[in-house]
Structure formats: structure tokens, C-alpha cells
TrEMBL record:
Domain MPN residue range list: 102-225
PANTHER family listed in its UniProt record: DNA REPAIR PROTEIN RADC, UPF0758 PROTEIN YEES-RELATED
Protein name per UniProt: RadC family protein
Domain of life: Bacteria
Family: Belongs to the UPF0758 family.
Source organism of the structure: Taurinivorans muris
Keywords from the named record: Hydrolase, Metal-binding, Metalloprotease, Protease, Zinc
Length: 240
């Protein structure tokens, strides 16, 4: 072992002990440095940790970055990519699983679930949250994965999923990878069309959420649905 290896391995051990005692006081780069150390066991990971933070701005930005974006950072290879994909999936399930087990969910909880799945994607995806009459979440399903600026879904596609899951209500969700925090005319027209078909089928169309730039936009909150049956309390419908 070289002197340099002895230095950073000793530093890593001291950092590990310090973080175990008080993780809240650790700097963001130190947390990433130690995480990366489990992938790059015999190299100094501090420069890579700092470069990731410089490029993506925060730990949230790093964990939310798409793998193809992460790979543009020098030193971030295939092993690091796999590690971060696993880490993101574990974090997502940490938040998602308790929501799925609740007897009744709020719109804020559906929004959190949606952000866990759709934030950071480089392409558009369409999902549906399917609920019963008591607002219990029956399932959260991907309907379609599209391109960077478009995704397609028809009322038939959504109806088939809703009928299969015996849902009586649904929330439509999709993302804007470009970060535009506003519903387009196409978004509104598609929403109203799906809403009318669901209403004819006796399935309550509760909302359409758009995930963009770390935010959640509710078409119902913005009065962009022609019919909106209020089933959530006003406090529950507040989305940032």
C-alpha cells in the first residue's frame, strides 16, 4: 500500500467514525465522499464528491440526476451508476411503501409518491394513482414512457388499468423533463378528454399532477378541470 493510499484510507476511517457519531453535522460532500467510498474502495473519493455537488448543486440534485447526466462527471463510472440507481430506488421505496399501506391517502402523499418516481427523468412518463371509494391507494402504475418532450396515453389505456384494479377514482400524473411548471394546452385538452370518459364510466377523475423541476402542479388546484369533485380537505390539496 502506498503512502497516498494509507492517507485516504485513514481519512476515510476517521470520517466514518465522525459521521456515525453525528451524521447531521457532516458536510454534504463528506456524505457523498463516504458513500462513493463503498464503490471506489482504494481511491480518494473527495474530489468526485465535490465535483458532483458543484455540477448538480446539492445532495438532492445528485440523487435526482439521471444516470446519463452522472456519467458526464469524470470518475463516475458504471459501478457508481449502478450504486446510485440502487440508492435512489431504496430511497423511493422508503417513502412509497408506507403510503401504499395507508387506509386513506391525501393528495400531498400521492404527490410525494409521484416525485419519487418521476423527478429527474430525462423523458416523459404517464402514471396513474388508482383509489377506492375511501381514497385507499390500490396501485400506482406506469401507463406509458415517452420521449424527452412527449408521452401518449388514451382513455382506453387508463380505463383498462382502472377496471383491472377495481378502482373507483384516479389521479393522472406525468412529468415535464424540461422543468416547465405550467400545463400546456395539450395537457389540458388531454386531461379534459380523459376526465369526461372516466366520468361516463363512473370513475372519479380527481386531479392531474405535473412533476417539473422538483415541484408538483395540480390542475385541480389551478381550476383547470371543468369538473372537480372535492374529496380532499383544502389543507391536503396544498402542493408546493
Amino acid at each position: 500500500m502506498t503512502a497516498d493510499e494509507q492517507h485516504y484510507l485513514g481519512h476515510r476511517q476517521r470520517l466514518r467514525e465522525r459521521i456515525l457519531k453525528n451524521p447531521q453535522e457532516a458536510e454534504a460532500y463528506e456524505l457523498l465522499e463516504l458513500l462513493l467510498g463503498y464503490v471506489h474502495k482504494r481511491s480518494d473519493t473527495k474530489p468526485l464528491a465535490k465535483e458532483l455537488l458543484k455540477h448538480f448543486g446539492s445532495v438532492w440534485g445528485v440523487l435526482n440526476a439521471h444516470p446519463t447526466e452522472l456519467e458526464t462527471i469524470k470518475g463516475f463510472g458504471e459501478s457508481s451508476k449502478i450504486f446510485f440507481i440502487l440508492l435512489r430506488e431504496i430511497v423511493a421505496r422508503y417513502f412509497i411503501e408506507p403510503i401504499k399501506d395507508k387506509k386513506s391517502v391525501t393528495l400531498d402523499e400521492i404527490a410525494m409518491l409521484a416525485r419519487c418516481r418521476l423527478d429527474g427523468l430525462c423523458h416523459e412518463e404517464i402514471w396513474v394513482a388508482l383509489l377506492d371509494n375511501n381514497n385507499r391507494l390500490l396501485s400506482f402504475d406506469k401507463v406509458h414512457a415517452g420521449t424527452m418532450d412527449a408521452a401518449f396515453c388514451s382513455p382506453k389505456m387508463i380505463a383498462e388499468i382502472a377496471i383491472t384494479k377495481k378502482a373507483t377514482a384516479l389521479i393522472l400524473i406525468h412529468n415535464h423533463p424540461g422543468g416547465v411548471t405550467k400545463a400546456s394546452w395539450a395537457d389540458r385538452e388531454t386531461t379534459l378528454h380523459i376526465q369526461k370518459v372516466m366520468n361516463l364510466m363512473g370513475i372519479r377523475f380527481l386531479d392531474h399532477l405535473i412533476i417539473a423541476d422538483g415541484k408538483v402542479i395540480s390542475l385541480a388546484n389551478n381550476h383547470l378541470l371543468d369538473e372537480n369533485e372535492i374529496i380532499f380537505n383544502d389543507n391536503d390539496k396544498s402542493i408546493v
